[in-house]
Amino acid sequence: MLELKNISKNFGGLKALHGISFSIQQGEFVGLIGPNGSGKTTLFNIISGQLKATSGRIVYNGKDITALRPDRICKSGIARTFQIPRPFKGMTVDENIVTAVLFGDGDDVTGESELLRKAEYYKELVGLDVNSATMPVELTAVDLRRLELARALATQPKLLLMDECMSGFNPEEISRAALMLKKIHEDMGITIIWVEHVMAALMNHVQRVVVLEYGELIAEGTPSEIAQDERVVEAYFGEKHVLGDA
Ligand SMILES: Nc1ncnc2c1ncn2[C@@H]1O[C@H](COP(=O)(O)OP(=O)(O)OP(=O)(O)O)[C@@H](O)[C@H]1O
Ligand SMILES: [Mg+2]
After folding, report:
1. Among 43, 68, 123, 149, whose Cα sits 20 to 30 Å from the Cα of 173?
2. Which residues are near ligand 2, the ion (C-beta closer than 5 Å)?
3. Residue 107 Cα, ligand 1 centroid: separation in angstroms?
4. What residue segments make up the domains of the chain, in order of their start?
5. What pLDDT digit, counting tens, does each position of 140-150 carry?
């Protein structure tokens, strides 16, 4: 479904990504992990078109999307959430979701009442329990992350890139969110690449893990293989911030 071919990204003299190659099959649920600054968000920015790679190619369903604009990439079925939520601040929560619905599926929507029903549907799906006139500024940090996910899902993606959607969640919120992700993956059939510092949740739910360190891919495998990989343990699990800095 998605093929990254030798992706590199330089910011001036800094090599944020160096020769990253891996593939994602349709229907997979993949975790992307690595210490702070290892290049996870940069890779999402490149896949979703916010940043252009210095070199390398991205192929999505057989089509080269390396040079496409972000809106075209989203239209083709790749949605992402931002690590720092980016709602339209002048719009209500419902309007934010409706905008995403219209962007993703606008042609099929017949009227305003259907749009509002869809907004309710996505709010319920992600556990965002606020009324329709609520403004983003009124949301808690946790609810802002839920809105971020609702907007991404409302574009009806085939591939969802999630950048730390559970930061700041308490253990109960994490287990609820993990169940929701399972539903998104299994029932809605959405392929997911998930970046998360909440290790236990990620390792319990993903089928495969890709590990970055200093912009390089250092390991790839099942959660149990990755948990025993010496280089990963050293790079990642050995650092005390991993479990605490969620
Ligand atoms: N727009 C930019 N301009 C310059 N440097 C950048 C830019 N974006 C990222 N970087 C640098 O690239 C490196 C990778 O950053 P990135 O945000 O991708 O890491 P990350 O793995 O997402 O980290 P975290 O876990 O903290 O979110 C870091 O050294 C960062 O400072
Ligand atoms: Mg990041």
Report:
1. 43
2. 40-41, 83
3. 37
4. 1-77+157-246, 86-156
5. 998 999 999 99
Asked if the model's pLDDT at residue 246 lies above 80, the reply is no
pTM of the predicted structure, to 2 decimals? 0.90
Q: Is 37 in the pocket of ligand 1 (CB under 6 A)?
A: yes
17 touches 39 (CB < 8 A): yes
Q: Residue 36 Cα, ligand 1 centroid: separation in angstroms?
A: 8
Q: Which residue, judged by its Cα, is nearest atom 8 of ligand 1?
A: 42
41 lines ligand 1 (CB under 6 A): yes
How far is residue 189's CA from residue 160's CA, in Å, rounded to a whole number? 11
- Which residues on neighbouring strands pair with residue 160, listed in sequence order? 79, 192
Task: Determine the residue of 7, 17, 40 to mutate for testing ligand 1's pocket, defined as the one with the most ligand atoms within 8 A of the Cβ atom.
Answer: 40
CA 171, 148, 197: angle at the middle one, nearest 5? 40
Do 50 and 11 meet the contact criterion of CB atoms below 8 Å apart?
Answer: no
Query: How does pLDDT run across 84-127, given as a tens digit for each residue?
Result: 889 999 999 999 999 999 887 656 667 888 888 999 999 999 99
Q: Which residue do the tokens 């972000």 mark?
A: 70
Check if the beta carbon of residue 105 is closer than 8 Å to that of residue 134: no
